[in-house]
Amino acid sequence: MILTAVLAAVLLAIVIVKYLPLKLRWIASILLMALSVFLIYKIYYGIMQPIIFNKQKVTKFAKVVNQLKIIRDAEVKHLEVLGRYTKNKDSLIRFIDSAQVALTETKTIVEKEDRGGGIIIDVEIRKTDTIGYESVAKYFEGRNYKDMFKVPGQEGKEFDIEIGTVEKVQGLIVPTFLVKTDKEGILKGMDKSLIKQELEAVATDQIKGEFVSVGSLDEVSNGGNWPPSYDKQKGDKKE
Description:
Blueprint: H1 2-18, H2 25-82, H3 89-98, E1 100-116, E2 119-135, E3 160-169, E4 172-182, H4 183-186, H5 192-199, E5 211-216
């Protein structure tokens, strides 16, 4: 577009010099001035567009990441209390509303151990006792967990949840979960060429790939695929 406009300006200048009468050159001057303004605008927009896109992208992604953190924390509590993850969204919300998490205390005690032959030694043993219970909802105070599955900025769109298992070591099967949403939907309506570049992002300071996600089905992890900068965004705890 810019190259075409520059070429048009050059051709217009040639026409003015060679063929246009002096009394009509004021019209050409106005056209050249308008073309110059257009070129300046296009050059400025070409420079600023990626900067504007990046700022808007970070704002949109930050809202999504905050939602994913709530879901992640809910899944972790669900595993802690019930020993498994869940992909049932309504069930997870009810779990936060009604479940109790045990409060434990671990201490080291010394017991006598008879090794035989009259040999008695002191052995340190770690003992864990349940000292009470508290509501799971306490961990989500000030956080809108009722709407945690709604993807910000996308009417009617919810996060996808999958659960599975992996064999961490031979014979040890560990539950896993993955929550995600596609980046293209989050960025809908923005510059298509810049969206395409974003979907191919691999830099360490970017959210890699086509999705914003937390957890993994292939390894034991409850981390997100976003860079540390998103953990420093305002509103991390409250929605």
